[in-house]
Amino acid sequence: MTSTEEALNEAVADAKLAKSAVTAADGKKAQAAAELDAMKALTVVGVANAAAVAAQAHAAHAGPVDALEDKATKLQVQAEVAREKADTLKATGVERIAHAQRVAAAAVMNAETLYDETLTDIENGVRSVMGV
User: Fold this and answer.
1) Where are the domains of the chain?
2) What is the model's pTM?
3) How many Cα atoms within 13 Å fall on the side-chain side of residue 5?
4) Which run of H or E residues covers position 66?
């Protein structure tokens, strides 16, 4: 039995006891005091009932909410893993682009050197033919 159910049962018992006291009370003052006690006990019963309803509502909805929170946590973990993979791929891509740029620059330099050497060879060949 839960503490809410125990409180409800105790409040109901107190209300029954107070109602019995009203019936058995002698005189107006004693009857008024007994009625006041009965109203207080009924108020406690009402509060206990409200607490029981709230506890039942919470219990009914706590499971689905907990499941959604668990799912959200799992999705967050998956998102973090995906972000790390994306960051790694981006870093790898940046590194590959930089490498390709270095290779391209070296190829351009080699082509320019070959071009200059070829022009020099052509000039030397022309000079040789012309006798210069």
Assistant:
1) 3-130
2) 0.43
3) 3
4) helix 28-130
